Amino acid sequence: MIDKTTWTLQSAVADIPDGASVMVGGFGTAGMPDELIDALIAHGARELTIINNNAGNGDAGLAALIANKRVRKVVCSFPRQTDSWHFDAAYKAGEIELELVPQGNLAARIHAAGSGLGAIFTPTGYGTELAAGKETREIDGRHYVLEYPIHADFALIKADRGDRWGNLVYRKTARNFGPLMAMAAKCTIAQVSEVVALGELDPESVVTPGIFVHRVVAAGGKS
């Protein structure tokens, strides 16, 4: 019997080692798996490479992970907001490395990893410092930059509901990056508001099929 449910948040992240690369789903606070991140902080893994749309908001979630000095490097599109003070402080102190990736490229590179592509050509970034040292090519009169897929050891994502096979449905914009990251990580851990019985999810509404999910843990609350 396939049963990917995990009883506690702590056990869901217990095997994430120091130095792991971890994708974190969501767009800002929408779809951020805060409870899984709190469990990761309690677990104690350090020197992590975090792939996310931004570098944390306020004092919770990813910002708390940075504040606890667990992050070695951040790969993101928007490192600075009005409430990104923990990242700002760590970056200014030289405690954290930043790889800046345009948002479309970030999504495309993660998608490339999940789709098994070796690389992609994208026009975004051509002629800027972001393209320095990278292969470029002219295709049909337009200039492109070669970018490589972004893989990860783990993905922490948040969905609305899931079943024991790992099938997931999301709530509105909380699905940002989660489905792509689930495909691109070696181990995907999904935090859901509720684990439902098999057959209760409308197959037409399933966004992330269970084949991409390794663990499901119920954390309560709306996603």
UniProtKB/TrEMBL annotation:
Alphabetical keyword list: Transferase
PROSITE patterns given in the database record: COA_TRANSF_1
Gene3D superfamilies: Glutaconate Coenzyme A-transferase
Taxonomy, superkingdom: Bacteria
InterPro entries: 3-oxoacid_CoA-transf_A, CoA_trans_fam_I, CoA_transf_BS, NagB/RpiA_transferase-like
SUPFAM superfamilies, per the entry: NagB/RpiA/CoA transferase-like (SSF100950)
PANTHER family named in the record: ACETATE COA-TRANSFERASE SUBUNIT ALPHA (PTHR13707:SF60), KETOACID-COENZYME A TRANSFERASE (PTHR13707)
Protein family: Belongs to the 3-oxoacid CoA-transferase subunit A family.
Protein name from the UniProt record: 3-oxoacid CoA-transferase subunit A
The organism's taxonomic lineage, starting at the top: Bacteria, Pseudomonadati, Pseudomonadota, Gammaproteobacteria, Lysobacterales
